[in-house]
Specification:
It contains five helices and seven strands; from the N terminus they run αββαββαβααββ. It is of the alpha/beta class. The chain has a seven-stranded mixed beta sheet with strand order 3-2-1-4-5-7-6. Helix 3 links the parallel strand 4 and strand 5. The radius of gyration is 16 Å and the shape is globular. Bound molecules: S-adenosylmethionine (SAM). The site of S-adenosylmethionine has 19 residues, from loops. The site of S-adenosylmethionine (SAM) has 19 residues, from loops.
Length: 192
Amino acid sequence: MDGYIDWHLRRHKEAAFADLPDTIVEIGSGVGANFRYMRPGTTVIAIEPNPHMHRPLRLAAERREIELEIRDVVGERIDLPDSTADAVISSLVLCTVANPSKVVSEVLRVLRPGGRYSYLEHVVVEEGTPTRRVQRMVRRPWAWVFEGCSCERDLQTVIRSAGFSFVENHSYRIHSPFLPFNTHIAGTALKE
Ligand SMILES: C[S@@+](CC[C@H](N)C(=O)[O-])C[C@H]1O[C@@H](n2cnc3c(N)ncnc32)[C@H](O)[C@@H]1O
C-alpha cells in the first residue's frame, strides 16, 4: 500500500516534514515510507518494535542514503534520554499503538527545548456523520485487517492536550474508497 498511501499524502508530508534537522527520531518507521522526505545523509533513530520491519527498513535506508539506528522498543517507552532530540516524526502510527497519550508524552520527554514533533495521522470523524457510522460498524474487522489499527481515535485532542507550547494542526480529507480512513490530521507541535 506504500505507493497508494504516499500518492494521497505526499503534499501533506512535504509540508509537515519540510526542513527537518540532520538527526530525527521516528516512531513506527515501518518499511521507511518517510525516508523519501529526508535529505540523503540524515540520521534516523527508528523506534520500531516489529522485527519483521527491520530488514526492509534497513534496505530502504541504504537505498535513500539514510544513516539508520533501529531501537527495538515501543513508543510508549522510548529508550532515549530526556530533552535530547531535535525532531520527532510519526505517520500513521498513533492509530496503532497501545497508548497514544503515553507515546506523545514520551515524544515530549525526549524532545529538547525548541524541538519539534511533526506528524500525520488518520482520525475519528465528527459524530452524527455517515462516515462516523461506518467507522463504528467496521471497527473490529478494520482492526483485524490492519493489525490493530483503530479508525476511531481523536488524535488531535491527544496531541493538543499533551503539553506542547504550540501546536499547528490542520485536518483534511483524502478521496479514498476506504471511508473510515479518509479524514486525517497533520501538523507540528513545539516544545518550549
Ligand atoms: C501503519 S504502520 C506505519 C508505518 C510508517 N510510519 C508509514 O507511514 O508507512 C504502523 C507502524 O507502527 C509500528 N508500531 C506499532 N505499535 C507501535 C508502538 N507501540 N510503538 C512504536 N511503533 C509501533 C508498527 O510496527 C508499524 O511499523
